[in-house]
Design a protein that fits this description.
Helix 1 runs parallel beside helix 8, helix 21 crosses helix 22 and helix 22 packs across helix 24. This protein is 44% helix and 18% strand. It has 724 residues and is of the alpha/beta class. The model has no long low-confidence stretch (mean pLDDT 96). An 8-stranded parallel beta barrel has the order 3-12-17-20-21-22-23-24, surrounded by 6 helices. It has a 5-stranded antiparallel beta sheet with strand order 4-11-10-9-8. Strands 1-2-18-19 form a 4-stranded antiparallel beta sheet. It has a domain of 140 residues: Malate Synthase G, Chain: A, Domain 4 (Up-down Bundle). The protein is built from 25 helices and 26 strands. The radius of gyration is 26 Å and the shape is globular. The longest helix has 40 residues.
Length: 724
């Protein structure tokens, strides 16, 4: 039972009030009375607006459902459908051209292209690892993943394998030749590196060569003639060649190179949303405390590894000497953004004047921004943002009116915290269809705050299914990524972003690589994101960030963006082409069952950890035991897809229930080695996790916008109460 204290007309959970009053407010020198009275005013002002926006979503969805109920059996008339969407206000008129005017944006967002990590901020170890992933070992990333094949004696198992090590070194040298080529020869032939007369000299056998482009040399450490590291730069990203012939790796290398370090995750989103399971005051305090520790610079985490305690802290900046003798200081950590929750969810951490749970997005905006004020107040600009900005990624907004609400809320928070106008920047997740088709107008509303648009294709697919739920049976999930609408959606995001002047001012991002164990495949496929004109894309781990960083050396994103400007923009008709089956009867029974098995197993594998252990995002083995990153977005797709097939008779309720029960047994076996795991199959009737998963499927058509959060939150609270 939550204990509340009265503050004004608010009831605030005691642990949240204590955290804010004793840990946060003293650090930003904000008087308690002023903070709480201002917070209460914001709640009273924005709660009715929030509620109204959600009711508009429901009203529009009801009209769309009615349209499809009337027209779903006839060939889809795109012209009539588009006019209908305009008539109900779902699709708004597009205004005149403009360019964003966002100021004080850090270089990592505006001027650099590179990987972006998304990490649950409530897990201190993960949060620190991701923040420190600004720099990462290419040797480790290659050696420790399937990026290097294990054939021919190059296995990863056991101790150090010199065969694999040699292949890693050869691969890394090939990367250096590509990113920073020599005037003559190859880095593979290098016997030594030295800085002589301000230039990098490389001894290769009897010859001495230099970089083909000497401007790529940025600095070094140690003695110029015998440096301990050499810093190079390509496409605005740094590469550090570390040299030490006395190390285990360095002594086997004729140039004494012990490692090659890449600048990798230049930005990281610390996530309060899809990757966390935060359902009450205690959970939210854990989220906010870690965010405070990151921005204050004092977050640490001690854990046991190989039987020994290790303490992780934030990396310090990296220092080098330039060829001209000056000092060069580079950030040791990612630039941090924080993702707040969307407009839908309420939280019992604070009750308003009517005793209702407040909208969690309002609470997130106030508290994460208050933490960010620490950074803004740092006059030396040595913290997170060197331009004095606070970066908030806002998910699951539906159209321009919801973006306007967010901007107005941020303005109110700025007034409360005494921040200059537009200090709080916004990242717009383009992951709901009403935002996609109105993206230009969404950006226009936030033109002086926006620093980020991103195609969150997973949630976007979930919304596509739910919005068109009654139009017909959806194509199989496995075919969805090849459908017409999704390519147009991805292209449209870049087209509109460039047309709105985001180049050099903001990030145009692409979504997650959800298969963290398949790095060789990622290296083959994810180069498509910078080639598509995106100056950032999401990766699931620090090692993945290092590997994906190589793509930004291979592709000059700014050149690609210039080339893309001249193409024909993505067509609205293509975006609105529904991914429905022309004839569901053509699906073979075994194909239907295969699809159900895959979806049900993924749903259960994710939900059981969410409900029973409070794990918001994790690597969940799929039905083939391949680890996939699962969060509420992937859950949304799978649950909505089954709900759609149930609605249109592609499968039966009995068939789905049999599948869910059978997959529960598979998930139980996959988690048999987890001491915290509670098997579902042993008592299905009393398994809260199993019930939660079934609710998402069988009541999927009734879930608001197809979101999984309401059901998950309620069941997680139920589970916590049952365990207390």
């Amino acid at each position: 039972m939550t204990k509340y204290i009265q503050i004004g007309d608010l009831q605030v959970a005691a642990q949240l009030a204590d955290f804010l009053n004793t840990e946060l407010l003293p650090k930003i020198d904000l008087e308690q009375r002023r903070f709480w009275s201002g917070f209460e005013l914001l709640i009273s002002e924005f709660t009715p607006r929030n509620r109204k926006l959600l009711s508009i979503r429901d009203e529009m969805q009801a009209k769309i459902d009615a349209w499809h109920s009337q027209h779903g059996s006839t060939p889809h008339d795109l012209q009539a459908y588009e006019q209908f969407l305009r008539d109900i206000g779902y699709l708004v008129e597009t205004g005149a051209d403009f360019e964003i005017g966002t100021k004080n944006v850090d270089a990592e967002i505006a001027l650099m292209a590179g990987p972006q990590l998304v990490v649950p901020v409530n897990n201190a170890r993960f949060a620190l690892n991701a923040t420190n992933a600004r720099w990462g070992s290419l040797y480790d990333a290659l050696y420790g993943t399937d990026a290097i094949p294990e054939e021919g004696g190059a296995e990863r198992s056991g101790g150090y394998n010199p065969v694999r090590g040699d292949r890693v070194i050869a691969y890394a040298r090939g990367f250096l030749d590509q990113a920073c080529p020599l005037r003559h020869g190859s880095h593979a032939d290098a016997n030594s590196y030295a800085i002589i007369d301000g230039q990098l000299k490389i001894q290769t056998g009897e010859a001495v060569t230099t970089l083909a482009d000497q401007s790529q040399l940025r600095g070094f450490t140690g003695i110029a003639a015998q440096p301990t590291s050499v810093l190079l730069q390509n496409n605005d990203l740094h590469i550090e060649i570390q040299i030490d012939a006395h190390t285990a790796i360095g002594q086997t290398d004729k140039a004494g190179i012990k490692d090659i370090i890449l600048e990798a995750a230049i930005t990281t989103i610390q996530d309060c949303e899809d990757s966390v399971a935060a359902v009450d005051a205690g959970d939210k305090v854990a989220v906010y405390r870690n965010w405070l520790g990151l921005i204050s610079g004092d977050l640490s985490e001690t854990f046991i590894k190989d039987g020994n305690p290790l303490t992780r802290i934030l990396n310090t900046d990296r220092e080098f000497e330039t060829p001209s003798g000056d000092k060069l200081r580079l950030p040791g950590c990612s630039l941090l953004l924080v993702r707040n929750v969307g407009h839908l969810i309420r939280n019992n951490a604070i009750l308003d004047s009517e005793g209702e749970e407040i909208y969690e997005g309002i609470m997130d905006a106030v508290i994460t921004s208050a933490v960010g004020r620490i950074d803004v107040n740092n006059v030396n600009r040595t913290g997170n943002s060197r331009t004095g900005s606070i970066y908030i990624v806002k998910p699951k907004m539906h159209g321009p009116d919801e973006v306007r609400f967010t901007c107005d809320l941020f303005a109110g928070v700025e007034a409360l915290l005494g921040l200059d106008t537009n200090t709080i920047k916004v990242g717009i997740m383009d992951e709901e269809r009403r935002t996609t088709i109105n993206l230009k107008e969404c950006i226009r509303v936030a033109r002086d705050r926006v620093v980020f648009i991103n195609t969150g294709f997973l949630d976007r697919t979930g919304d596509e299914i739910h919005t068109s739920m009654r139009a017909g049976a959806m194509i199989p999930k496995t075919e969805m990524k090849d459908s017409c609408w999704i390519k147009a959606y991805e292209d449209n995001n870049v087209d509109v972003g460039l047309a709105c002047g985001m180049q050099g001012k903001a990030q145009i991002g692409k979504g997650m690589w959800a298969m963290p164990d398949l790095m060789a495949r990622m290296l083959e496929e994810k180069i498509g994101h910078p080639q598509a004109g995106a100056n950032t894309a999401w990766v699931p781990s620090p090692m993945a960030a290092v590997l994906h960083a190589m793509h930004y050396h291979q592709v000059n994103v700014w050149d690609r963006q210039e080339a893309i400007r001249s193409r024909t923009p993505a067509r609205l008709d293509d975006i609105l082409t529904l991914p429905i089956l022309a004839d569901p009867s053509t699906l073979a029974p075994e194909k239907i069952q295969q699809e159900l098995d895959n979806s049900a197993q993924g749903i259960l594998g994710y939900v059981v950890r969410w409900i029973d252990q409070g794990v918001g995002c994790s690597k969940v083995p799929d039905i083939h035991n391949i680890g996939l990153m699962e969060d509420r977005a992937t859950l949304r797709i799978s649950s909505q897809h089954i709900a759609n097939w149930l609605l249109h008779g592609v499968c039966t309720r009995d068939q789905v229930m049999e599948t869910m029960q059978r997959m529960a047994g598979i998930v139980d076996r996959q988690n048999a080695d987890d001491p915290l795991y509670q098997p579902m199959l042993a008592d299905l009737d009393n398994s809260i996790a199993f019930e939660a998963a079934c609710d998402l499927v069988f009541d999927g058509t009734a879930q608001p916008n197809g979101y999984t959060e309401p059901g998950l939150h309620a069941r997680r609270i139920e589970r916590k109460l049952a365990s207390s």
